[in-house]
Amino acid sequence: MKYIAMALLLAGLGTKALAADPYYPASAIPEALKKNAHSVVRLDEVSYRYVSPKEVRYVRHHVVTILDREADHRSELEFSYSSLMELRSVSASYYDAAGKLVKRVKQSDMTDLPAGNEVSLVSDSRVKKYAFTGFGYPYTIEFEEEYKYNSGVYLDKYMPYSWYDEPVEKAVCTVVMPQGMDLRYRLLQSDLQPAITDVKEGKSYAWSFANLAPMRRETSSPALHERYPYLLMAPAEAKYAEVQGKMTSWQELGNFMYAVNKGRDILPEALKAKVHAIADPLKTHDEKVAALYKYLQQNYRYISISLGVGGMQTIDAITTARTSYGDCKGLSNLMVAMLKEAGIKGYSVLVYADEDPLRFPEDFATLWFNHVIAMVPNGKDTTWLECTSNMTPPGYLGSFTADRAVLVLDETNSKLIHTPVYTRQDNRRYSATSATIDEKGNLKATSRVSSTGILQDDKIQIVHLLSKDKQMEVLRKSMEIGSVNISSYTTEVLSNRLPEVRENFELSASNYASVTGKRLFLKPNIINRMGAKAAADTARTAAIDVSYGEEYTDSVTITLPAGYKVESLPQPVSLKTKFGAYEAAVKVQDSTATYIRNYSIQNGRFPAADYPAYVAFLNSVYKAERNTLVLVKE
Residue 74: phi, psi to the nearest 5? Predict the structure, then answer.
């Protein structure tokens, strides 16, 4: 039975759709909102009704006007659903520039497809799709969707925006809580207070936003919840699967998630015996953890599983052991179970995984997380385990999960802690290159490169996942050398707590240095030119967020062709800023040029007012990396 808010909403829609008056004509959009916009949200109306810890009803009514072809993607509609998120009804409509109804689409008109991807083995998630095409501009798309969420955990967040560069004329979020239960909420980046009223069901909370300037894509900026209005919500308690728990603190939330997965760590007898065969002969805690982790990496593979309550409840360890695959939850659960059998206490850990750390309010407990890893405490030390990777050494996490708050799941003492921070000194790249240039500008060179910490993350993936030919193709594309030929390429991976990838290669290139008359123009930084040109942004509003510090040290020794002398030597460059430092110099003695470059990037958060200086630093580095040495024939 649809609740009152839904009934009123649909009644209003029906009146407008059947009336002679136009429905959201494009001419009614305020001129200020249309400036530089390709589309405008006319209305985003969202309603949650918390029925019980195991049921939340959700209704959304969305109207967007597309002004030109740049925003045609907004007419491509998708509605995902699963056994936990039941799609009760959905419809969509198309209106012309004057607001006249042109086409209406029912749920039965939409394409229904599986929502899995190439790493999804099994999933009950599906998606309904429909795209409006072939009409003139401007036009308006409207859709209405209603869901039944089969867990109170889905009452969590709302953002009044739908897309970048899209202003919002009006957005409303309403939450109805039952008698005797208050809503926990926190609105970030706004002082707007909710209208709280008593209603038949209990208590209603409503936030109404109007004439919101569009979200902007800004380089190196913090996450959206740190820049724009972002509503956090959470009930005091929720039910997931057959488990009900509290959510008012991180400890309660973690204990709840632990209970959802409790009892699913039982190992089959054969695996128990294998665990003891591996761990019992070893003496130290760290040796046992490393050996069991290696066994997991060599014998189990990652694949996505989202079936039934698979979103937050793991597949049991017996099934994972039998099939030899699992998702992040299943593999972490299996790892913790093996450690338990060996007498070592381990924990599953919830984390928001992304290349840039997500900074969320640590005094408001709600489900921010999208990934599971494992951790093993050992006195003052902690060993982190990325169980979905068959190449990451024990103790190392990488940019996907480092330097952020995570929730350790325990039966009674769950807690929020932080993953390791990899400093500028950890994230280093060193190279030494020896090269010769002949009088025709042809190059031959050998190079040794060492990358550690975050800077080896991509390289280790390339080494493990690509063939030798593909590895050399990636290396060629990383250089600004038009006709480079790599004749030899070898790698070595050092799987330490701070892993290192070493590369050795030989290359040649025709016409590397350009020859004009008696002159030869040569860029001494051969293999590792850094940086990209940065564009000015006078409208910048976001802080500059640099997630990780990095250091680069490069030396290049070049044997110059006989009979040439230096006509023009690049001036030494020395830059010292709050964003980092850069030094580069070329010296020539006899027939040898030596290039030394040191470049450090400082992590941190810098105010938006510093952006012009930040751009100036990046562009100065870009220019210096491509300075030219000019030789002239004697």
Answer: -75, -10
* Global pTM value: 0.91
Task: Please count the other Cβ atoms lying within 10 Å of the Cβ belonging to residue 72.
Answer: 17
556-595 as b/e: b if 16+ CB within 10 A: bbbebbeebeeeebbeebebeeebbbbebbbebeeeebeb
Tell me what the pLDDT averaged over the chain comes to. 92
Helix (H, G, I), strand (E, B) or coil at 9: helix
Q: Are 302 and 388 in contact (CB under 8 A)?
A: yes
Give the contacts of 399 (CB within 8 A, at least 6 positions apart): 355, 356, 422, 454, 457, 547, 548
Q: Would you say 110 and 130 are in contact if contact means Cβ atoms under 8 Å apart?
A: yes
Question: Which residues does 202 contact at the CB level (< 8 Å), separation at least 6?
Answer: 176, 177, 178, 179, 180, 181
Q: Whole-angstrom Cα distance, residue 211 to residue 398?
A: 41
Query: Residue 498: exposed, middle, or buried by beta-carbon count in 10 A (0-12, 13-18, 19+)?
Result: middle
What does the alpha-carbon distance between residue 156 and residue 154 come to, in Å, rounded to a whole number?
6
Tokens, residue 188: 């970030």
Total residue length of the chain: 634
**What letter represents residue 473's amino acid?**
E
Measured CA angle at 83 (ends 80, 84), to 5 deg: 80
What secondary structure does DSSP assign to 36-100, as a single string? T-SEEEEEEEEEEEEEETTEEEEEEEEEEEE-SGGGGGGGEEEEEE-SSEEEEEEEEEEE-TT--
The string of pLDDT tens digits covering residues 301-322 is 988 754 444 578 999 999 999 9
Indicate the angle between helix axes 468-478 and 457-465, nearest 10 degrees.
Answer: 150
- Residue 603's CB: how many other CB atoms inside 10 A? 18
Q: Is the pLDDT of residue 45 over 90?
A: yes
Reading the block at residue 187, the tokens are 């609105």
- Which single residue is written with the structure tokens 């109404």? 208
Higher-pLDDT residue of 92 and 118 is: 92
Structure token digits, residue 558: 């070049």
Helix or strand run (H / E) with residue 573: strand 573-577
CA dist 156 and 151 (Å) reads 11
Give the integer Cα–Cα distance in Å for 540 and 606: 12
β strands within 296-355, DSSP E: 301-302, 304-306, 325-326, 347-351
Burial bucket for residue 36 (CB in 10 Å: 0-12, 13-18, 19+):
exposed
User: Which residue, 272, 429, 288, 416, is CA-closest to 352?
Assistant: 416
- Looking up tokens 């593909």 gives 470
Strands 514-516 and 484-494 turn out to be unpaired
Q: Which of 281, 275, 240 is nearest to 261 (CA)?
A: 240
